[in-house]
Each structure stands twice: as structure tokens, then as C-alpha cells.
Amino acid sequence: MSGIYIHIPFCKQACHYCDFHFSTSMKKKAEMVTALAKEMKMRKTEFDDEVIETIYFGGGTPSLLTIEDLRFLIDEVYSNYNVGANPEITIEANPDDLSKERIVNLSNIRINRLSIGIQSFFEDDLKMMNRAHNSEDAKECLKIATQYFDNISIDLIYGISGMSNEKWLQNIEMALSYNVPHISSYALTVEPKTALHSFIQKGIISQPEDEVAQEHFHILVDKLTENGFIHYELSNFGRENYFSKNNSSYWLGKKYIGIGPSAHSYDGEKRGWNVSNNALYIKSISDNKVPIEIETLTKTDRYNEYIMTGLRTIWGISLDRIAAEFGESYLNYLNQQAAKYIEDKLLCVHENILRTTKNGKFLSDGIASDLFLLNLE
């Protein structure tokens, strides 16, 4: 089973923290939609033997596309690929795009999952992040969306400068009040060349503190676990049967094709990424060339990726798989590197699966990097 990711590189305005590829100009939207459909056709032979179980519209802001654009692109997936009987079809959406009419229309074009970028229910946070919506937009769209969609995920950001533990808890409780079955939550990170980075350098906004983010993370884990959510990946919490199939496929190493500028692809042996430039992407596709760079993964690359993804999830790292797929030398190295974290109770081994403990979860990316093998082939 495989997935298709479709990158929609347009936004109304730039969020101060975002370093994803997008444009705030919609001038090339029609050309982009045509190019996306053409890339799907050009690459359909890559998935001749695959069944598509997830279609994901990411961005950017996919909810800026018209219903007709979205219907056309979904139809193109069905026309060119073998889509399973009940695929998960997700669209990322911002609250300001989700009027009642829009929500109803989305529910009528095969889309069955909404991923809504709430980020915070507080006005001052939204203004600091330069979000296009306000707090009332967030609450109103969830009130309506939950009437038409069963499968809804919302995004929340923690570790914001000046956000108290009490305020963060209020954000979580507000999210829970809408009874959504999935929550994705991320620490505010300061990426180079973003407006947030510039504001911090100029002293306009204070630097987010790791200690605050770690406290917020543990509050989040405790509160959502109390309310029946399963913490199945570092940043993702879902009720039973509501894990994101799209995201889970990435972490479990399934194949996917990324359509659109900056989109990534993976076939089990190679990774590819499209050019991060709208004009160059459109021109290349019109010239019948997919503007993609491809990297063939070495055994060490694949080991390191499995360590990173495995340690972030409830599925952990199978020591039996390490031995079978990579060999005893890799297993011995992993055991040696993991020993100090096991001693410090940040990692544990149960039924030959290496996982983070509760105290180790927030630190999983840093721990994983120390388990990487650096002598690349």
C-alpha cells in the first residue's frame, strides 16, 4: 500500500515561523493545477504495482484551491493510479477558509479527513505568528466541521515565548471540547531566514526556551493520555482507529510519490525531491520533464532513517529487524550506543523492541542522532 502527497504552494500570507515552500501570489494557480495533474500522469508507471491508500493535500494552504480544482486533482489520481476501496483523503486547511458552505462542499468531493491549522485559540499568539485567522474563526470552523466530518485533526503549537503552563493547558482543553479524534502538536522552532528568526535577533520577540517547551510537552502528553488519546508518534496523538494513515506510512517506511514543487518521494531504496520554485516547476513539467533530484540510499542511510522514525513512534525499533536487515555489526553498534540511555531510563527494551521511556520521548530526536552510524558507505 502506498500514498500520494500533493503540495499546494500558495498561502494568503507568510506565518512568521514557517520555512516551507510557498508563494503568496496566486497568479500561477491555474498553471500550477494543470502541472500537478500532468506530473501525476508522467509518474504513474512508478506505482504500476501499488495500491493507493492515502491521498494528502499539503502545503502551503491547500484550502485556497477551489472545490473544482480539488475535485479535478482527486479525479486525476483515480484516473492514473490504482486507488483502494476506502482511501484516507486529507486536506490541510486554515480556519479562515472553512465557511459552512466550504465545509459542506469539501465533504462532497471524496475528502474524508480535515487537518486544521488552529495553532492556538488565543488572539495574541495568532498575531505573533501572523496567522490569517483569529480565535473566533478557529472556534466557529470547528463547531461546523465536526457536524460534517468524523475524522478531524487539529494542529497546536507549544513552547511559545511567554506562554504559561496554565495558558497552554487552556489551549489543550479548548481543543478537547470539540471532541476531535486527532491532535498534532509541535514545539515552536526558530528556522533560519524566517521572520521569527529576524524578530528574535532584533530583540522584538524573546527566544523560545527548551525548558518551557519540555514542560508544555509533558502537560500535553499527560492531558491527552487522560482523555483517551494514544501518543503514537512524537508530535501526534490519536484516538483508537484515528491515527493518520498518511503520516504513519512515512514512519513505517511505505512508498509514496510527492507531486508538486518541493514535494518529496520515496520508493524504499531512493528518495527524491522536486525543485522548490513554482515557475521552474511549471516550466519543467510543460517541457515534459519532472524536475526531481534523486538520491539512492545506502544501507547506513536506511539504518539511520529507521532509527530516527522508529524512535519517534510507539512501534519503536525492532532489534530483530536490525539484525536481519542490516547485520550483527549494526546491532552491536546500536546496543552499545543505547546502553547509556537505557541506564538513564530514557530508553527501554521490551520483547526485543527498543523504545523511548516517558522521560525520553521529548528527547527522542537527540537520542536518535547519537544512535546514528556516521561511517557512511
Tell me the total number of β-strands.
Answer: 15
Strand order of the largest sheet: 7-8-6-5-4-3-2-1-9
In terms of quaternary structure, what is this? single chain
Rg over alpha carbons: 21 Å
Task: Give a verbal description of the structure.
The protein is of the alpha/beta class and 377 residues long. The protein is 41% helix and 21% strand. It has 14 helices and 15 strands. Strands 7-8-6-5-4-3-2-1-9 form a nine-stranded mixed β-sheet, with helices on both faces. A hairpin with a 2-residue loop joins β14 (347-350) and β15 (353-356). α1 packs parallel to α2 and α11 (299-312) packs antiparallel against α14. It starts with a strand and ends in a 6-residue tail after the last helix. The mean pLDDT is 92.
Features of the shown structure:
nine-stranded mixed beta sheet, 21% strand, 377 residues, alpha/beta, three-stranded antiparallel beta sheet
